[in-house]
Recover the amino acids of this structure.
């Protein structure tokens, strides 16, 4: 279960719910259907149990933006619980020579599988990286080609290339945008290879999706309505996540929120200054209490802060007794002022810090809401992913923007080509 | 050398320069003196060559906020160049049980050194963590205490504790704030232990500090003046850093900028809504071209974007020929549309992507500036650190805020204690 505390004004949810249903049935975005795609699930499960992978210790994902952020988010949240798989993951996202060198020095071809993920099939970073890898490791030779597989849009140039070369290639529907694709094969294949229970991930996702479409998650629309109505007063959306397990989920949220909602309202004239959008900021607590919090408390009052945390019980699920993390009853001479937390479980202390920060912001009339996961497992992360996606879609409806395109990123791509002309 | 392209209006720099000189001579902040502190340098160098460290393969830093972000920033930027040291670093920043377990499972006491860093000496996260480590590893026993050392403010409770226990303890001046402390022993000790050339780091820092005080870095004051003058029109300061090596530097910048400049103007009434501040956002290019860029291009026009990058030459300095990263002349059937970058060095492609993004934003009249490091080494990072610190101080002067305190973070700390009362 996920507990939502959403103290914004209740609104009539029907118009937004109807608009979302229309998006789903018209196919304006395909992400609504992903949790129900049992064929994709079966295909990812079957692939990850192939004999080839029994000798694979390292998975290298070549992909950027929506092709890597979702997998990063889910794996960072849950990877600690599937260490038995002992498979490592590396991400190659752009042509940074230092990062690429570091990854290459830590792998050997024999025990490595490369997964190229590009929706368009022509992402310049990803294709440049894979050209390098193909040359470096002779990946298209018949002996080595089983070490490379691809995920791309159905009908993309990459699909043609992969098929012609006899590479394994998975496709996803074109109407599933990169930032909404983590529950498609884009996320399911790598997450399954990393040992996560992708069935449970989709089950959680399905539960949230069904509940929303049944009109039982009105708090999502209430929150979207508050954010949309006050987008000029509160242009910054902060996600304050308590626990390092959420650090990559924050980055996924930043893309989802920023790229979906940051739009020119006219959509026709790119030089228009009539842009709308909510600027996402991802923070990790308690760490960022020592960084960004001062600005929230005393800076300009332009932020809405959503708190994300785990219930105190989450650390007890998988731990044996001897590994429980509790502040010991340890008295250090001179440091008695810190003894008040002695005996407190680590996670409980983290959660009390969240509570203290949340109540401080409330007392200052800074808008806040909170989300608490009862357990840290695939089911809950699946549901959480869909929660954020639906919140994004609802806010997009209420802001009057198309949440599913990204015309603004094309300008720079076109300009890049002119340098080579 | 660092090249700055700062196309903002030139201003009379004298008043700000005089204010900064007054801050330095009055001791309002002690960071201005750090690059000249040869005693600290010698002390860190001597410590890191002690016999004890010959068997140490893992350094665990217990510290949060200013106690870890600076070391993270410099090490992430330069760690690739000192791999010969082969010492690993881990950070324990808060009582996250999952993260703590992960770190503990990867180390053994015999080859690990723990470095506790807390300015106040009573940071609740850090002391809770060290209590756990003391209990878990029996760190105060005579056989083990050489594996723990401390860095704290001169005169803090932690200093008394450390001295009473016979632990090695370094102190820093109380007027050096955590977020301005990376060039003090807080950064010098761990960075030296990790194999970085801290002499060169301070030399670069000294060069920038001296040049600024000699009135030769007027572009810093021009930029500060633009940001302060337009802080309501452009409340968001984006640092768009090209290269994964800068990912942690971004986080350091976010703390420096947010915590220094986000202040209540009256400073007396914490519930005042008359806060000022510039919200910092750190992006990594080209990765975040696939994430946040859409929002900058088409969203609300409330951002100033500073680009940070490396010159094309940076990848050639330390690389042997066979390890040079260039997009190969590799033609993949069906993917010919990507061939225009064939033959381009990785870093040059990254820099051209930066250029294309920068020119796109310029063409849309979004305010931008750029910073290019000629080399990626200690000297340049030292100079860059001082650049950002001075920019923060100058902007603070022009906004009329005290850049060196953080009263807003105390409210939550006090509230936390009430839960245990």
């Amino acid at each position: 279960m996920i507990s939502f505390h959403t103290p914004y004004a209740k609104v009539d949810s029907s118009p937004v719910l109807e608009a979302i249903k229309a998006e789903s049935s018209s196919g304006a975005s395909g992400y609504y259907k992903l949790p129900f795609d049992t064929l994709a699930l079966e295909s990812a499960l079957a692939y990850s149990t192939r004999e080839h992978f029994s000798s694979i210790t390292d998975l290298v994902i070549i992909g950027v933006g929506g092709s890597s952020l979702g997998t990063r988010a889910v794996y960072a949240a849950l990877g600690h619980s599937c260490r038995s798989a002992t498979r490592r993951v590396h991400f190659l996202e752009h042509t940074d020579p230092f990062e690429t060198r570091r990854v290459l020095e830590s792998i050997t071809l024999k025990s490595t599988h490369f997964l190229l993920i590009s929706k368009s099939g022509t992402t310049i970073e990803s294709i440049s990286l894979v050209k390098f890898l193909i040359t470096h490791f002779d990946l298209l030779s018949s002996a080595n080609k089983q070490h490379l597989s691809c995920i791309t849009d159905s009908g993309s140039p990459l699909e043609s290339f992969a098929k012609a070369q006899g590479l394994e290639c998975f496709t996803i529907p074109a109407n599933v945008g990169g930032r909404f694709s983590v529950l498609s094969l884009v996320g399911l294949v790598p997450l399954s290879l990393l040992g996560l229970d992708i069935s449970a991930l989709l089950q959680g996702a399905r539960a949230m999706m069904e509940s929303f479409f049944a009109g039982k998650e009105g708090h999502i629309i209430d929150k979207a309505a508050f954010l949309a109505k006050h987008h000029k007063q509160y242009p910054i959306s902060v996600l304050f996540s308590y626990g390092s397990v959420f650090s990559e989920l924050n980055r996924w949220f930043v893309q989802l929120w920023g790229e979906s909602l940051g739009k020119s309202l006219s959509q026709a004239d790119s030089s228009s200054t009539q842009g709308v959008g909510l600027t996402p900021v991802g923070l990790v607590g308690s760490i960022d209490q020592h960084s960004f919090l001062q600005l929230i408390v005393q800076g300009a009052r332009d932020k809405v802060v959503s708190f994300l945390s785990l219930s105190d019980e989450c650390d007890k699920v998988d731990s044996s007794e001897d590994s429980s993390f509790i502040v010991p009853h340890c008295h250090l001479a001179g440091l008695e002022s810190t003894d008040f937390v002695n005996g407190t479980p680590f996670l409980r202390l983290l959660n009390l810090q969240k509570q203290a920060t949340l109540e401080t912001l409330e007392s200052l009339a800074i808008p806040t809401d909170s989300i608490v996961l009862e357990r840290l497992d695939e089911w809950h992360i699946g549901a959480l992913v869909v929660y954020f996606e639906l919140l994004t879609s609802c806010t997009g409806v209420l802001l009057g923007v198309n949440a599913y395109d990204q015309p603004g990123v094309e300008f720079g791509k076109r300009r890049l080509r002119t340098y080579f002309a």
